[in-house]
Amino acid sequence: MQIIAHRGFWLDPSEKNTSIAFTRALENGFGIETDFRDLNGDLVISHDLPRGDEMPIREFVNLYAATRNDGLMALNIKADGLQSLVKKMAKDLGIQNYFAFDMSVPDMRGYFSEGIPTFTRLSEYEQSPAFLNKSTGVWLDAFEGEWYDLPIINGLLEKNKQVAIVSPELHGRGHGELWNFIKKNHLQQNPLISLCTDFPLEAKEYFHV
């Protein structure tokens, strides 16, 4: 299992999506989930609408290049039409272990056309993932509570899909029950599984990965 640090490895919420959190994640060998939008024709790191003071993509590229981290990069796409910018960023980073996700369904077609690894979504509100056959993997989400079970996960794995599991604390819930489910079923031993969490160091110690 690969561990993805949600908006970087932050110790205080004010550090989310900052160079401090990204550097800490990279230095500890974690993957990173972060948010991308465009501003004046360039990519920036921003969960919300950009105001002009967001981290430019060049800074993110430089942080990544300063380490030899090959952790999984989850690129959360917050605006349509960013395919060419995302592809250029991936080339500049020199990364292979990454995927884009969360773009609108029609916009996914452009990512497939550009050959960008793309995850579709599966949640209690998205029971029929768009473009499942074309997608590299699935972003497995649960907004209200863990609705899925082991057969659902195994069904995706049997299709040779990567499965990125969203840890419950991202939605304000406790993570203990889900983490126990993962460990009890030995999912942490499967290289196709990843866990996106606000507690990457705790996850590393709990799962011994």
How would you concisely characterize the structure shown here?
The protein has seven helices and ten strands. The protein has helices spanning 19-27, 57-65, 83-93, 105-113, 150-158, 176-184, 200-207, and strands spanning 2-6, 31-39, 42-45, 55-56, 73-77, 98-101, 119-122, 137-140, 162-166, 193-197. Strands 1, 2, 3, 4, 5, 6, 7, 8, 9 and 10 form a ten-stranded mixed β-sheet that branches.
Shape call = globular
What number of domains?
1
> Would you state the CATH class?
Alpha Beta
Low-confidence stretches: none
- Strand coverage percent: 15-25%
* Oligomeric nature of the chains: single chain
Describe this structure in words.
The termini are close together. A hairpin with a 2-residue loop joins β2 (31-39) and β3. The chain is built from seven helices and ten strands. The mean pLDDT is 95. It is 31% helix and 22% strand. The chain has one domain (2-207): TIM Barrel. With 209 residues, it is of the alpha/beta class. Strands 1, 2, 3, 4, 5, 6, 7, 8, 9 and 10 form a ten-stranded mixed β-sheet that branches.
Keywords:
209 residues; alpha/beta; TIM Barrel; globular
Describe the secondary-structure layout:
Layout: E1 2-6, H1 19-27, E2 31-39, E3 42-45, E4 55-56, H2 57-65, E5 73-77, H3 83-93, E6 98-101, H4 105-113, E7 119-122, E8 137-140, H5 150-158, E9 162-166, H6 176-184, E10 193-197, H7 200-207
Parallel strand pairs: 1-2, 1-10, 2-5, 5-6, 7-8, 8-9, 9-10
Antiparallel strand pairs: 2-3, 3-4
Helix pairs in contact: 1-2
